[in-house]
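Anyone up for a design puzzle?
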């Protein structure tokens, strides 16, 4: 890692603006091109020798009893001279479609740096978070060890004499959500029609167990974040310490709902924020539950990934639009890979550091896309379902048909493995619900029997076929 000297970053404002694609800067406005919409867009800011918005944000945090966000831990981040500038820039409009993160970056032919705020390279050295130099000539070398291992697996898969072609490969499968009646109610991840109910958490678990069996039979070492219904986090939802997630909620707000308040004068900003609906929401019992579901439990799953250090992470999910009615229009398949970092999601220093990691790990991103594409193609053929192909899906950006970059917690937190987040089919589709509501087959995972809908066999067959096809290529 080379943390380049601060003097290198004292560039002229015009050079900085041109390097990020900014068009003009005057008074309290900055204009830049939104790469997704190809037109000028403006931001207001104040620059008086210090970052006024960060100063006001600090006042607000102190008033709310939230400690300042500490510096991110950059250990394990990509080293200098591992990625070329063309490779770094190739996926910028997919990973950072609104140029939100680029407001915090300085990019030139020598390298790229991450700062604590807009234009902060003009401020004291403490505003510099992390910087690396670009590799001067192709090819990029980031993710070298992981890709070398995957190439070895590919050789094994291509060997017709190999009976366990995935031997040596570590796969972690995360069955999304929780699957118990109480958690289904809290998450809304179920469909109930009269006396029939389909729980996504249960579908995810059964699919994960069946997929684990399939991969283990091929020689892979498989880990699961859970093997039964319920939360992964060992914390008690009624008594766990919410402060880390409460604090992160407010750190994340800097570029989201908090942003308009930061233009108010000091005399009125504190009262305005205290009375903001978004601030009041943070103290409610419902938000406490959400801090557990979308914070503590997802962090527990992510920590398991950190411990296992798998080569590949597969997140299993199914899709539904509503919990109390069926539909006949939407039954496509898609997969998410890390990216799609939207402008309102860049407020936290910690989150920005993870986003920056994914921007630098270009070859890991491309490998995740290739694996995801092959897996969903196998599922599409096995299930006879189409791939999602809209330009945007929810908050995600299309990389190619069926594969989307989306800023999801586990995908963002996973900075060491290939990442494929599957949405297998729509269980609220009328033709699927009737099949998925009937547990007509028996399975067994490591001595534990479970009943599951036979439709899931086609899902798992597609996952297995697409996975092997990826390595056969």
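Challenge accepted. My sequence:
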């Amino acid at each position: 890692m080379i943390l380049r000297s601060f003097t290198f970053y004292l560039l002229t404002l015009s050079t900085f603006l041109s390097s990020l694609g900014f068009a003009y800067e005057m008074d309290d406005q900055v204009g830049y091109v939104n790469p997704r919409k190809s037109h000028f867009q403006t931001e207001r800011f104040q620059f008086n020798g210090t970052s006024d918005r960060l100063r006001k944000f600090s006042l607000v945090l102190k008033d709310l009893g939230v400690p300042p966000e500490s510096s991110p831990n950059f250990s394990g981040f990509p080293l200098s001279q591992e990625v070329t500038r063309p490779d770094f820039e190739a996926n910028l409009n997919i990973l950072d479609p609104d140029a939100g993160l680029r407001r915090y970056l300085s990019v030139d032919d020598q390298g790229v740096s991450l700062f604590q705020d807009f234009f902060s390279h003009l401020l004291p050295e403490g505003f510099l978070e992390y910087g690396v130099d670009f590799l001067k000539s192709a090819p990029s070398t980031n993710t070298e060890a992981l890709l070398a291992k995957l190439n070895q697996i590919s050789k094994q898969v291509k060997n017709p004499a190999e009976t366990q072609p995935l031997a040596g490969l570590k796969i972690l499968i995360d069955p999304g959500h929780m699957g118990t009646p109480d958690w289904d109610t809290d998450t809304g991840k179920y469909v109930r029609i009269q006396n029939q109910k389909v729980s996504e958490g249960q579908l995810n678990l059964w699919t994960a167990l069946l997929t684990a069996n399939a991969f283990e039979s091929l020689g892979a070492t498989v880990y699961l974040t859970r093997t039964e219904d319920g939360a992964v986090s060992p914390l008690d939802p009624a008594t766990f310490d919410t402060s880390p997630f409460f604090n992160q909620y407010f750190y994340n707000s800097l570029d989201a709902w908090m942003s308009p308040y930061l233009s108010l004068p000091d005399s009125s900003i504190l009262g305005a924020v205290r009375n903001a609906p978004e601030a009041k929401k943070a103290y409610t019992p419902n938000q406490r539950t959400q801090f557990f579901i979308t914070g503590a439990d997802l962090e527990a799953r992510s920590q398991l990934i950190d411990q296992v250090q798998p080569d590949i992470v597969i997140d299993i999910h199914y899709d539904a639009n509503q919990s109390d009615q069926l539909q006949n229009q939407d039954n496509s398949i898609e997969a998410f890979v890390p990216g799609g970092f939207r402008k309102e999601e860049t407020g936290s220093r910690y989150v920005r550091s993870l986003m920056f990691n994914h921007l630098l790990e270009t070859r890991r991103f491309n490998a995740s896309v290739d694996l995801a594409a092959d897996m969903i193609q196998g599922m599409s053929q096995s299930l006879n379902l189409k791939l999602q192909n809209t330009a945007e899906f929810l908050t995600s950006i299309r990389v190619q048909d069926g594969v989307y970059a989306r800023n999801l917690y586990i995908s963002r937190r996973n900075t060491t493995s290939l990442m494929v987040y599957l949405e297998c089919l729509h269980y609220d589709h009328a033709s699927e619900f009737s099949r998925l509501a009937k547990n007509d087959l028996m399975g067994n995972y490591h001595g534990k029997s479970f009943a599951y809908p036979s439709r899931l066999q086609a899902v798992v067959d597609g996952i297995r076929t697409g996975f092997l096809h990826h390595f056969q290529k």
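A detail worth pointing out: The first helix runs from residue 13 to 19.
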